[in-house]
Design a protein that fits this description.
globular, Four Helix Bundle (Hemerythrin (Met), subunit A), eight-stranded parallel sheet, 3 domains, Chitobiase, domain 2, single chain, TIM Barrel, 45% helix, alpha/beta
Length: 703
């Protein structure tokens, strides 16, 4: 714990004294006070001490630590104070991370970023993080033990941006690996991560085994029972080893033993049988036997093992086969426990998912957070809370509160919390900053914004009838853009705001305001086209493309909001040129077509309004679309992009000659894109210029 303090606040590290105290009625607790010129941080464990330390930093040093700006703590003085900061934590277990987070946000992280993230977890009270980094090495070395060649083992393992979905058994061998040095580096990184988590008192959730195997394993065992699983989202089919087959236990135990050899064993194993798929065998008691077989494998390997299962893939017969105390269910979005009689008595964690695809749209009901849903769950088998976003690089205000609610025992007074957040986030107590965050609450963080995020029309594949940008998003903007714009105006009034978080938010809110404006311009352009009004069409479509250019320039002032920076990070994770190209394609494909090039249904699932990506990809698609519509003006027939078949209320990727031409552009882009480096323009000046330019238009809501 001393090292955590020295890593994060080196200038004041000697001001802290740590003391261990007893739990409060069996619950984690901390108490912070000043004595003999020292800030005394008492806690019943290291995580409690980390929480107390961070509580002090927030209250008396004005600290806001975030994934979006304010990524470092900068404190040079440690004020002494009167009284105590005391807290008892009602939630025993606080879980964090979704498999998808590791694909969308952390696929290419190295130790420097993981070290900061683990400290961040500790300070926010997280004691059960998903810890599957390095699982590629577990699979690779196990397959080698089962006589697979180096190439054969590598070729089964998907690339970094897709590996988490292979762990969830959705597919295998997508952008497969080719370099053993990468495997070795992942084993080393995974060990560093788990060692640090354990050092701080966390309990890692490690990877289990639910049965997906390479088809070629049947060559090793003649009577093995494997079946072909149905394709997920048009990916090639996978193969499922029957959990009741003796080979299941043999191979699964070998994986667990290899994982223990590489990283240690810490009793909690994530495993989701038939995740987003259906069992092939339909026998009445088959699922019960599956549950019993998997649990027996874990208990024989580790008598203290606990099976960790996502509520997404829960099947009653499977979990009824598991004895109480040996299963922990992650209620990912907090809704499933009510539909399953509180998971039939098994321990569960009440979760919050919020983000899909790490799409950077501003959204989320902070009142739903502040109301503290944990208080409404009366089941004694609800043992904690969890935060399971698919991505973490958006919505800093929402996540600051979401992390806090993991350990809260009461509801939050939002007015007071927002005032305090403005002070911490922006480094100033000015009223305009408080007004700004209140405007965010009244717009993108209002109760109307509960649930899925609104899609970006900029990132939407162009179409003649407004559709979803990505699967399962919301088409409508559920708040008044003028109110969001007022938040930006209030931020820009500040005279003393001095933090990186301030600069980030000015950029990000400007982005969202102008993105919303493009939604209005799209509707206007289509109205002009359908009514054959050339002036309205040209004015609206040109204004749309102009905003795309302006947004790209603005976003290029923040490296973390650029395609260039993320592409650089992906390339630097590789150890040779071939793997570098593979990793870059991992990222570029995930951002755009997502799935198999010819048959993808998840295209644009992980869209991002990023500098370099708007200019080279999204704006190019819209420009060609508007040019196509202009050519259609003289024709009598009505041009439409709507495809006969639909998937998730979206057009089929290759569903028409028009979209086939788009696919050609998208495929070419994947191999030729060369984004510009971030520019050296000033973020605040650029945003201020855009705010002044669009003030009358946005406030008047006229095209």
């Amino acid at each position: 714990m001393e090292n955590l303090i020295r890593r994060n606040t080196p200038e004041i590290a000697d001001m802290f004294e740590l003391r261990e105290i007893e739990p409060a009625q069996g619950k984690n607790t901390y108490d912070v006070f000043c004595e003999n010129g020292k800030i005394v941080v008492c806690g019943d464990c290291k995580i409690s001490m980390a929480m107390g330390y961070y509580a002090y930093l927030k209250k008396y040093c004005g600290v806001n630590l975030s994934h979006c700006g304010n990524t470092e703590i900068s404190v040079s003085e440690a004020p002494l104070f009167e009284g105590h900061i005391t807290k008892v934590i009602p939630q025993q277990k606080r879980a964090y991370l979704n498999y998808c987070t590791l694909g969308y946000s952390a696929a290419f992280w190295k130790w420097d970023k993981w070290e900061k993230e683990i400290d961040f977890m500790a300070m926010n009270g997280i004691n059960m993080p998903l810890s599957v980094v390095g699982s590629e090495a577990v699979w690779y070395y196990t397959m080698r033990d089962f006589t697979y060649s180096e190439k054969g083992a590598l070729s089964f393992l998907s690339g970094p941006a897709y590996w988490p979905w292979q762990l969830m058994t959705n597919f295998d061998s997508f952008f497969s690996l080719a370099d053993v040095k990468y495997i070795e580096s992942r084993a080393k990184l995974g060990k560093q991560i788990i060692d640090r988590e354990v050092e701080l008192g966390m309990t890692p959730i490690q990877q289990g085994f639910s049965g997906m195997v390479p088809k070629s394993i049947s060559r090793l065992y003649k009577k093995i029972r494997i079946t072909m699983a149905k394709s997920w989202c048009n990916f090639p089919v996978t193969y499922q080893l029957d959990p009741t087959d003796p080979v299941f236990r043999k191979f699964g135990t070998a994986l667990l033993e290899k994982q223990k050899q590489l990283f240690g064993a810490f009793h909690y194993y994530a495993c989701d049988p038939f995740h987003e798929n259906e069992p092939v065998i339909k026998a009445r008691d088959y699922l019960f036997k599956v549950g019993r077989a998997i649990d027996n494998m874990y208990s024989d390997f580790d008598p203290d093992s606990v099976w960790v299962m996502q509520s997404w893939s829960l099947r009653e017969q499977i979990i009824r086969a598991v004895p109480k105390g040996r299963l922990l269910v992650l209620d990912i979005d907090g809704s499933k426990h009510e539909k399953t009689d509180e998971f039939f008595g098994h321990d569960f964690i009440l979760g919050n998912i919020h983000s899909f695809g790490d799409r950077n749209t501003l959204h989320g009901s902070i009142k739903a957070l502040a109301d503290n849903a944990y208080l409404d769950v009366k089941a004694e088998n609800c043992v904690g809370t969890g935060l399971f976003p698919e991505g973490i690089f958006q919505n800093p205000l929402y996540y600051d509160l979401a992390f806090q609610m993991l350990t809260e025992g009461d509801k939050i007074d939002l007015d007071a919390w927002l005032d305090d957040y403005a002070r911490r986030r922006y480094g100033s107590d000015e009223q305009c900053l408080k007004d700004a965050v209140k405007a965010l609450y009244a717009s993108c963080y209002s109760e109307k914004c509960t649930g899925r995020e609104t899609g970006s029309v900029i990132c939407q594949r162009p179409c003649t009838e407004h559709t979803h940008t990505a699967p399962n998003d919301v088409k409508e903007i559920r708040y008044d853009n003028k109110v969001l714009f007022s938040a930006l105006q209030n931020l820009l009034k500040a005279e003393n705001a001095c933090t990186d978080g301030y600069r980030y938010d000015v950029c990000d809110i400007t982005r969202q305001v102008l993105s919303n404006r493009c939604s209005e311009l799209y509707e206007s352009a289509m109205e002009g086209f359908n009514k054959r009004d050339v002036k309205i069409f040209e004015r609206s479509s040109n204004a749309f493309l102009k905003i795309c250019d302006e947004l790209d320039e603005l976003l290029q002032t923040r490296p973390e909001l650029t395609l260039y920076e993320h592409l650089r990070e992906a390339g630097e994770a590789a150890f040779n040129d071939k793997e570098k190209e593979n990793f870059e394609l991992n990222l570029l494909t995930q951002l755009t077509v997502w799935g198999p090039l010819a048959t993808t249904v998840n295209y644009d699932y992980a869209w991002k309004e990023w500098g370099g990506l708007i200019k080279t990809y999204y704006a190019k698609r819209w420009q060609s679309f508007f040019e196509k519509l202009a050519l259609e003006f003289p024709k009598r027939g009505k041009f439409s992009t709507v495809t006969k078949k639909q998937h998730c209320e979206r057009n089929i990727y290759l569903g028409s000659p028009f979209y086939k031409s788009y696919a050609e552009f998208e495929r070419k882009w994947l191999s030729t894109v060369d984004p510009e480096k971030p520019n050296d323009l000033d973020t605040l000046e650029t945003a201020k210029s855009l705010a002044e330019k669009y003030e009358k238009i946005i406030c008047a809501e006229s095209v």
